[in-house]
Model the fold of this input.
Amino acid sequence: MDDQLMKEILDQAPDAVIFADKSGLITYWNAAAERVFGHSANAALGQSLDLIIPEAQREAHWRGFDRALAAGETKYWGKALPMRAVRADAETIYVELSFAIVKSGGGEVVGALAFARDITERWTQDREMRRRLRELENAQPAH
Done:
């Protein structure tokens, strides 16, 4: 597969595709990432991943990012994790993220790849359902 076809595939992927180099700077941002996070590719490229990470989560994110790059792997490989993210309009959203550490053909770590989809609506519905279930459980008379 040639590089141009690979770029077209990633550009047209239905989920956000983000690649950050070893320093955490965004070097790839597809059209779905534009839709999910509200930043154009031009605005996102060259920026820190802090662009989409809520301030309260940044310290933990960077600890995990640095640990995964040093190890050359992530314990979350193949897992989709729900996480908070922040959009260009400062709105907090929930995304489901999956990660991979990317290595060169020679095995050197070159950065981190993430696939993301907006799950805010599902997250909100699930939270409301849990709240209603607690109310029903609390309303039951004790036996």
Observations:
- The beta strands are 16-21, 26-29, 81-86, 92-103, 109-118.
- The mean pLDDT is 92.
